[in-house]
Design the sequence.
């Protein structure tokens, strides 16, 4: 099944080919789940979103147009579902993290702290929603800037700005954590 | 983008947004930015080092795994091949005719069975005969050959 192009696989999956469907799920389910989890911070909810995303995929497959990769399409759907859920359950949106001037800490010092490494998930979770989406798709899932911008429905330039702000915020938080540990 | 057009500022922007690995940079600018860094390594050393540290931290992100039955439950809702879609009739026929329905033979067999059952029931009870007589008497009041002949 790995020799098939994605379009062939989608065509077969739409026609009820179980092997093609399983391959499509195995290849794309993990990324959809991870993207949803980073947004929702809840495993059960992330699984619900993943399942709903594929439910929509099964309906969309017969009329599939190969404009984007399946994973990009699936992440777009998953992000929209996550946004809906976040909108419903979060009455107060988190403010943007303040962007701080880079400190004099050396990169090696970041890495020396196991505490900092353990806190990376919490730091990502604390990022504003759009920055988290950008970081999740590009830095963590390896999408190209064009694919991620398409999935988020923003311009490539806007994506780049979100990424830069996300990384600056993460660096600042890691520096703060590092400084807090010092006597 | 050519190497000449790639500015120091733009390379720093790329590193800040996409990290230290050229593989993560926009494809259109990747070669030019890499060439610029190779030409002036000291200019970008600090930015690259910091970005690398963050990249490494991101690699250590630990997320929970989805439950094992998630993939199975997703596949349950997947479309079924047209040939595998069973109607009530096809389910019933597969029970009645496990080797498949053969219409001519099936119809002949059904006719034969119906004829035999109907004939046996009619002959054994005699109800049909009595009913025919009753109808005739009610209509003509007689049962003679002459009447029959006049009717013909």
Sequence:
């Amino acid at each position: 099944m790995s020799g098939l192009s994605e379009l062939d696989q989608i065509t077969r999956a739409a026609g009820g080919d179980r092997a093609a469907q399983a391959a499509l799920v195995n290849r794309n389910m993990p990324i959809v789940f991870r993207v949803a989890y980073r947004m929702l911070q809840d495993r059960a909810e992330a699984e619900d979103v993943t399942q709903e995303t594929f439910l929509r995929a099964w309906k969309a497959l017969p009329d599939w147009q190969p404009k984007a990769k399946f994973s990009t399409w699936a992440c777009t759907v998953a992000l929209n579902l996550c946004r809906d859920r976040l909108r419903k359950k979060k009455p107060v949106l988190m403010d943007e993290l303040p962007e701080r001037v880079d400190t004099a800490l050396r990169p090696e010092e970041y890495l020396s702290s196991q505490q900092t490494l353990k806190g990376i998930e919490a730091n990502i979770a604390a990022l504003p929603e759009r920055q988290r989406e950008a970081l999740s798709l590009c830095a963590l899932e390896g999408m190209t800037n064009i694919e991620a911008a398409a999935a988020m429905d923003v311009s490539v330039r806007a994506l780049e700005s979100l990424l830069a702000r996300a990384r600056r915020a993460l660096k600042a938080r890691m520096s703060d954590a590092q400084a807090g540990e010092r006597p | 983008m050519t190497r000449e057009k790639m500015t120091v500022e733009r390379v720093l922007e790329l590193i800040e947004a996409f990290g230290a690995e050229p593989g993560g940079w926009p494809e259109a600018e990747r070669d030019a930015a890499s060439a610029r860094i190779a030409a002036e390594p000291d200019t970008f050393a600090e930015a690259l080092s910091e970005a690398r540290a963050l990249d490494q931290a991101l690699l250590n992100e630990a997320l929970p795994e989805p439950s094992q039955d998630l993939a199975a439950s997703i596949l349950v809702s997947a479309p079924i091949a047209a040939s595998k879609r069973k109607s009530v009739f096809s389910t019933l026929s597969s029970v009645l005719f496990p080797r498949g329905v053969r219409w001519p033979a099936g119809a002949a067999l059904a006719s034969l069975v119906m004829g035999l059952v109907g004939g046996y029931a009619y002959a054994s009870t005699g109800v049909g005969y009595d009913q025919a007589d009753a109808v005739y008497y009610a209509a003509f009041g007689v049962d003679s050959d002459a009447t029959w002949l006049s009717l013909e």
Remarks:
- Chain A touches chain B through 55 residues (CB under 8 Å).
- Residues 100-105, 109-117 of chain A have pLDDT under 50 and may be disordered.
- The two ends of chain A are 57 Å apart (CA to CA).
